[in-house]
Write a structure and sequence with these properties.
The complex is a heterodimer of chains A (135) and B (194). Chain A has 135 residues and is of the alpha+beta class. Chain A is 41% helix and 25% strand. Chain B has 194 residues and is of the alpha+beta class. Chain B has one domain: Trafficking protein particle complex subunit 3 (Muramoyl-pentapeptide Carboxypeptidase, domain 2, 2-Layer Sandwich). Chain B is globular. The relative contact order of chain B is 0.15. Chain A binds chain B through residues 12, 50-57, 73-78, 97, 100-110, 114, 120, 122-123, 126, and chain B through 12-14, 16, 18, 61, 64-65, 67-72, 75, 77-81, 85, 154-156, 189, 193. Chain A: InterPro entries: Longin-like_dom_sf, Sedlin. Chain A: This is Trafficking protein particle complex subunit. Chain B: One of its GO terms (biological process) is endoplasmic reticulum to Golgi vesicle-mediated transport.
């Protein structure tokens, strides 16, 4: 899929615990930082929106130029945020659900401190495979 | 060997499916593990309140994970945003999965707006534990209080959770009450959400 996407997982305490930049568009140095900046700016919106609904998938909550920010909030208030340019909402929802399952498996590890960075390379490989599959 | 072909071996835990959670653990195995946990912590601390804190921290880690897993598995990916919702989630779903039955009762405190109580005739973790007289008010239910605290805090409802013995006439063994005192911001947000 030739689309740009930036995916980050932000913990309950607003600390990013995982980042993945996916995209075949021109890899400018500032593109990555711009994406992260937009996602962090969207955190405020997520915070308010999370308390208004009991659903986990919050769809598109913010736009920037032609990129859209979609967010998925888990029960423990860990936010999965995706900055993308695709319009395939169902694909994005399935993507979030699969990443959620992977995240739960990481969390169940008693030696993993919730809120710390996810360093597993296997997790990274799987998430990138999912972005290729759904985005 | 016969039968090894039937179980699929996964190279990495991330590939293994999460499972339906129908497994049960033997009570005696858990009781041994818990008693070792308490005894180990007893050697590491100088006083009772530190021991309770350590048990609470152990429970907190469990609570954080239980919340995520149960919301995904049993609640079909719906979060709890209201106070009564999360309390009934703890009282029924969490208790059922951890202890095999729902908690005996859930009450709202009469003196303070922010206090709630979950009572049990006898906590599963306390079944094989007796507290010597010189340990006074120590309660091994601090572990369960930690679990409840982990669930509530991670769901966005910070609270102070403690376990107490409440004597009841007609029974020699006192009931256990888990007292939950919510933080200010929880009540303010509840009032705002209406």
């Amino acid at each position: 899929m030739t689309s740009t996407a930036c995916f980050i997982i932000v913990s309950r305490n607003d600390i990013p615990i995982y980042e993945a930049e996916v995209g075949s568009a021109a890899k400018r140095e500032d593109a990555a930082q711009l994406h992260q900046f937009v996602l962090h700016a969207a955190l405020d919106i997520v915070q308010d929106l999370a308390w208004t609904t009991s659903a986990m998938f919050l769809k598109a909550i913010d736009r920037f130029n032609d990129l859209v920010v979609s967010v998925y909030v888990t029960a423990g208030h860990t936010r999965f945020m995706l900055l993308h340019d695709s319009r395939n909402e169902d694909g994005i929802k399935s993507f979030f659900q699969e990443v959620h399952e992977l995240y739960i498996k990481i969390l169940l590890n008693p030696l993993y401190l919730p809120g710390s960075r996810i360093t597993s390379s296997h997790f990274d490989t799987k998430v990138r495979a999912l972005t290729r599959k759904y985005l | 060997m016969i039968g090894t072909g039937k179980i699929k071996q996964y190279a990495n835990v991330l590939d293994k499916p999460l499972g339906k959670g129908k497994q049960e653990v033997s009570l005696s195995a858990f009781a041994f593990l818990f008693s070792e946990l308490v005894q180990y912590n007893q050697t590491q601390v100088d006083n009772i309140s530190e021991l309770e804190t350590r048990l609470e921290d152990a429970g907190y880690a469990v609570g954080a994970r239980v919340l995520e897993l149960l919301c995904h598995r049993d609640k079909g990916n719906r979060r709890e945003t209201r106070l009564l919702g999360i309390l009934s989630f703890v009282h029924s779903t969490v208790w059922k999965v951890l202890f095999g039955k729902v908690a005996d009762s859930l009450e709202k405190g009469t003196e303070h707006e922010d206090e709630y109580m979950i009572s049990e005739k006898e906590l599963l973790v306390n079944r094989f534990i007796s507290i010597p007289k010189d340990m006074g008010t120590f309660h091994c239910g601090a572990f369960v209080a930690g679990i409840v605290k982990g669930v509530l805090e991670n769901a966005g409802f910070p609270a102070v959770v403690t376990a107490h013995f409440v004597p009841v006439e007609g029974q020699q063994r006192p009931r256990t009450t888990i007292l939950i005192k919510f933080a200010e911001e929880v009540l303010r947000r509840e009032a705002r959400l209406g």
